[in-house]
Structure formats: C-alpha cells, structure tokens
Design a protein that fits this description.
By secondary structure, this protein is mainly beta. The protein has no helices and twelve strands. The chain has a twelve-stranded antiparallel barrel.
Length: 128
C-alpha cells in the first residue's frame, strides 16, 4: 500500500504480488516492485525506486529512506489515511475513501485517487 503514497501516475496500477507487496503495471512503474522489508514497511526494487525504502514509523505511518524520499514521512492521520510531512509533500494528504482506497488532497494530489482494485492492489484515477 505504501507504493501509492508517493508514486502517483495516471493510468497506473499497483497490483498485489500475493506476498504482501505490490508490482507496478503501467507507464512509469512497469518493472518496479515494493516488497515487504520485514519490519512493517516496504523496500523498492527495479528502475527508479531501487535503494528506496518506506519504513514503518511505529505509529501507523511510514518514513522515507534513500534517494528522493529521505526525510519524508506519511504520518497516519487517525482516520485510515496519511498526511505528508517534509519537503514536497508537506500539506498533502491521502484520505481514506471508505472503500479501501484513498483520494488526494493538497498541491499535486488534488483530484487524484487510488481506488482499491478488489485484488489487494490499487489503480489510479483522476476525479473530475
């Protein structure tokens, strides 16, 4: 699920890998994978995300480690969603939509949505 928190692209799907992680399908994420790191977080594998990790912060959120995401945090918002902390994502939120997915608020996330795909993954949508 953490894959969706940072890497939003239109026409993309993060499918469940059936092992607790997510496999990217579509433009910009093909060949990428977020695998469980053994501590409640995820590590990136493949082009563009190798060396990145979203580690569990112990409070229901995730802290970024590695290129591009070092120092970022998606903190649990208390309602099933996440609020961004740190450069680039400060003031943004992924709000739980009540159906297993999330919709974005703030900056570049306005109008964006990650809908649950019914198979343990997510697909992107643009709200109109």
């Amino acid at each position: 699920m953490v894959a969706i928190l940072f890497h939003w692209n239109p026409d993309v799907r993060w499918a469940s890998d059936r092992q607790g992680g997510f496999v990217g399908i579509g433009r910009g994420v093909e060949g990428q994978k977020w695998s469980p790191d053994g501590g409640g977080g995820f590590r990136g594998e493949g082009p563009g995300i190798a060396g990145m990790r979203w580690g569990a912060d112990g409070k229901g959120g995730f802290r970024g480690y590695g290129p591009l995401i070092e120092g970022l945090r998606w903190a649990a918002d208390g309602g099933g969603g996440f609020k961004g902390e740190g450069a680039l994502i400060e003031g943004t939120r992924w709000v739980a939509d009540g159906g297993g997915g999330f919709y974005g608020e703030g900056h570049f996330l306005d109008g964006r949505r990650w809908a649950a795909d019914g198979g343990g993954g997510y697909h992107s949508e643009v709200r109109r």
